[in-house]
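Mods, move this if it's the wrong board.
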Amino acid sequence: MKPGFIRTAALLLAMLLGALAPQAHLYTGAIPWLVAGMLFIVFLQTRWARGALRRSHGALLAVNVAMGFAGWGLGTLVGGADVGRAAFFAGISPTATAAPVIMSFLGGQVEYVVAAFLLTNLAIVAGLPVLLPLVLGQPSPALFRQVAGTVLLVVFTPLGAAWLVRTLHAGAAGWPRRLRNVSFGAWLLAVFLAMANASHYLRTQPVPPAVLAEIAGVTALVCAANFALGHLVGGRHFAREGSQALGQKNTAFTIALAIHYASPLVALGPTCYVLWHNLWNSWQLHRAARREG
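Not the wrong board. Structure tokens:
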């Protein structure tokens, strides 16, 4: 059985099992740790080099931030404050930890996506302590400190740990290649838990079907716009890479933030985005597997 088919099937299975196992929401607290672990593995093999950055990376970052606020505005207009916040958390999510891995499966230029991952994650997570209190309507120093603490734990701690390990042991830069399946498994587990959390919330809380449809519809538009705009921003040489970098989001991180600082209803925004961008990833992996065949 071909690896591309296995990865596609595993991704779809993780989403299905999460929807069918709402009791697994009890372990949603593991998502930030899974994200931190995946980031640690990614950071082991990545080094910040100015030469890897291109002009289009700055445009990708600007569009990334703009899509968060565009989603917030559109969602608020369509369904009110909670729908707007759900769309904000979906749109503001930086490039996914797995985006470079998916790009490697698709045969693209991984270095471009890695640079986009580093830039968007470091810039956006640094700005979230300021942005989140404004979006949530709670501009307080206490919330700023709480969000900053979460960002420090989930992103900057694995970044520092990876730098330290790589400094002490140069061979650690080769670990990610051997741990590739571990990282993919952690990603699948995070997707499973996110879907389980959404399933539990929908089964236990009276969410009007209209609200769920609004969140799903707005996040689907945000997802489609991200992949399309990324294709344009990437230009002739990096269209596929730009599309993946902007479209595939680090939703595990923003789901964790939404659950902790907003509500499970708001967390449905990035959770729906999990479904949309992974359905597109599944289609891309399927096409790539057919080409390999």
